[in-house]
C-alpha cells in the first residue's frame, strides 16, 4: 500500500465505498489580481517594499514556488486558464477586450462538484459570462469597485458597504461557516486588489509614513538595446500614468464621510506636489512613490484577508486537511523598466507569486525552482482530491512537487502567448519559449490576412542580463541557442495544439473596425 500515491488512495477510497469528508482534502485558492512577487516579503525582494506576515506563513508552513509562470499575462485569460487547465488558444478566452468565457467547457470546479465537493467562488470573476460549476457564486461585476461595491450573488445584484478586499474576506469566511460540514469544499476567494488604480483601504492611507521607496535599477531604462516590442509600448510612469492613477481624481463609490477621510490624506500631498512643479526624473520619482504607497496599501489589506482566512481554518481545526494555494493572475511591474502593468513574456510580468500549504502532505518551508505554472492548478486540485483530470487539460499536477519530489519528465521549457492589441498599453502580440536561462519571443503585428508582420524576434539571457535589458537575438555567439530554442518552440506549439492562424477576435481591437467619430 505504501507505494500508492495519495491520489491513488483517494481514488481507491472513492471506488470502494462512501467517503467521509475528512478523507478528502478541502481546497482553497486565494487569488489576487496583479500581485507582484516583489510585494511579498517571503520572496525577499532587495527593495524590502513591504512585510506580508500572513502570506509569508504559507511559505513557512508550505512551499514557495519561485518560477511559477502564467500562459498569457492578463486578468481574464489567466482566470480562464486556471479553471480549464488549458491555454487561451484552447479555452477561447484570449483577451480582456472581446473574449467571453464559454461556461459549457469542462473546468476543475465542475469535476470537483461532480465528485461530491461543495464549490464556491467569491470576489472578482472577470470572465463576462456567469460562473458555472459553483454551488454558490458572489462576484464583482467586471473589474469591480474598491469601495462600497455592488456585487452579484447567485445571479442577483446586491450592494455592499465597506472596502472590497475586506468584504471578499468576510463573505468567504461566512460561506465556510455555513457550509455543509459533511462534504469537502472548494473555495475560490478572489481579490480585486491590488489591481489598477490601486486604491487602499482608508485605514491604510499613510501606512508608509511618506516613505521614499528604494528604486528599481531600471526605473529610467532607455530601452537602447531592445527592439520594436518594447519601444512600441505605452505603460510607463513617465507617459501613461493618469490623474486617476495619481489620485488627482477621486475613485468611484466613496460615501461623503469616506471621501472626507480620503481627501484628508491626499489633498495636502497633492497640493505640495502641484507647488513643487516637478519635471523629468523628479516627476517620475514622485509618481513611483505615490504608486508604491497606493499599491502596497492595497497589498496590506490582501495580506490581512489571508490572515483572517488562515485564522478561521486554525480556529475550526480545518487547517490540517485543507490545501491552501495563494497566487495572482500574473506578475506586475513595480517601476522596473519605468513601468506598471504586465502582459510581457518578461520576468516581472510572466511570473506570479505562488505558495501552497497542505499540512501532512506538502513539505514545509521549501522553495521549488522548477518551471511551474497556473496552468498546473486545475490538475493539482483534481489530483489532491483523487479525481481524474480531463484529457484535454494541458498542465501537470504539482502534488509531487509539494512533496519535494520532481518527476523526471517535468517540463524544462514553457510556452507563452499574448494577444491583446493595441489597447490598452500597446504591447505587441507575441509568443515564445521560456527556459531556466533563456527567453525567445516572436513579436508580431498580425495583418488582415492573419500572417505576422513583421517577422521579428528577440532573445533574452537571464544569466548574463538578469534585468532583461538587451536582446541577444542578432549576436552570432547565440546562433546555436536561437536554433535550439526555435526547434523547442515549434515542438511546444505542436504539443499544445497551437493553430498556425488564430481567430481574428483573439487580438482584441486589432481587427475591430475603428469607432466612428461623432
Ligand atoms: Ca490581473
Give the topology, please.
Layout: H1 6-16, E1 26-32, H2 53-61, E2 63-69, H3 75-84, H4 88-91, H5 108-114, E3 118-124, E4 136-140, E5 150-153, E6 156-159, H6 164-177, E7 185-190, H7 228-231, H8 243-246, H9 256-276, H10 280-315, E8 322-328, H11 347-350, E9 351-357, E10 366-368, E11 372-373, H12 377-385, H13 399-402, E12 413-418, E13 430-435, E14 438-446, E15 452-461, H14 479-495
Parallel strand pairs: 1-7, 1-8, 2-10, 2-11, 3-4, 3-7
Antiparallel strand pairs: 2-9, 4-5, 5-6, 8-9, 12-13, 13-14, 14-15
The protein binds calcium ion.
Could you explain the architecture of this structure?
It is a single chain. By secondary structure, the chain is α/β, with parallel strands linked by helices. It has two domains: 26-198 and 291-402, Alkaline Phosphatase, subunit A (3-Layer(aba) Sandwich); 414-509, Arylsulfatase, C-terminal domain (2-Layer Sandwich). The protein is 30% helix and 17% strand. The strands form two sheets. Strands 1, 2, 3, 4, 5, 6, 7, 8, 9, 10 and 11 form an eleven-stranded mixed beta sheet that branches. The protein is globular, with a radius of gyration of 23 Å. The relative contact order is 0.18. Bound molecules: calcium ion (CA). Calcium ion binds next to loops.
Concise description?
Helix content is 30%, strand content 17%. It is of the alpha/beta class and 518 residues long.
Terminal CA distance: 73 Å
The overall pLDDT, averaged over residues, is 94
Helix content: 25-40%
Number of strands: 15
Name the structural class. Answer: alpha/beta
Largest sheet: 11 strands, mixed
Output the helix-strand order: HEHEHHHEEEEHEHHHHEHEEEHHEEEEH
CATH architect. name of the largest domain: 3-Layer(aba) Sandwich
The domain tally reads 2
User: Which CATH C-level class of the largest domain is it?
Assistant: Alpha Beta
Portion of residues in beta strands equals 15-25%
Question: Which stretches of 5+ consecutive residues score pLDDT under 50?
Answer: 9-22
